[in-house]
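Table 4 source record.
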Amino acid sequence: MKKYNSERDSIDQIHYVYIYYHPITSEPFLVGKGSYDRGNHAIDVEKIQNATNARCFRYIEDLRKQGLEPIIDRKYYDSEQEAYDTEDILIRHFGRLHLDPGGILMNYIFGGTGGHTGCKRSKETKEKIRQANLGKPCSESAKEKLRQQRKGVPLTQEHIDNQTAARIGSKHSEETKEKIRESNKLYSSIPENCSMYGRNHSEESKQLMSDVMSKKTWFFRDPQNNIIEFKNLNDFCRDNNLNRGQMRNVFEGKQYEHRGYKNIDASITKKPNSNTGTTRSQETLQKLSDSYSRKDSIYLLDSSNNKIEIRSVSMFCKTNNLPRTCINHLIGGKLQDYKGFRKAS
């Protein structure tokens, strides 16, 4: 459609129809009726905060981030009603985005005198409308419209604080917890979600990490109560069949000992066992056994190629003096073999 001419036929013509065009594609995205300076409100920064057409202003803001400004054309009319009628015809011709089939305009409603020109509702009226709509379920199409309108709109700090305050003390239902758990499993199971997927550390990065690890000196008391020191915790744990995480906890004083290795600080003592001197009932022991047992058995092959059924990984590791982390890696496929044990196919 040909763009309108913005020149007036007479100085008495104050009512006009304005159209906003994309500066590159020349596609119209907003149609309205105005008088005097009404057609410039959408690009006036001072009036954006009081705007009612949020998605139109977001569209203009996106253009400005690209260093572009919309093109505005006007056509003047002798009467206000003639301008209203033309506005309504144009909006119906181009269609409203997400509201009409094939629509491209950011307008929410059709034009004409039914467009609520200049209508501003009071806080009391807004509250009445809000109360009347409470509890009403939204249709899927309405949800999609709201989603499109709010897309890309940053939340204010006040809004974020209100959301945080509303969640304090609330608890997720078991159904919600299960949904979150399944979602996290799905996310972590996709290799592309790993920040290092498809990337390798450069030789320079590897050297820097090695230098950082080698600069730190680790001190422990061994099972014979001798003070030992070394530079590489990974190599030491690997050579002595120790768990690196637990050895770090011992070094930092968070754990009393790990397989006889203790912190050199003698002030760190073993915490008293709250169950010392108490005898658990058979029912309690059975519950503990059930809680540590798997619903599905895990099968491993030992060094003699014998098939071993495992119901409790903790009990299996404790009985065979094996680190649980390594057996979990073996079950999960991160290790192919550990001390002769392999995962059965």
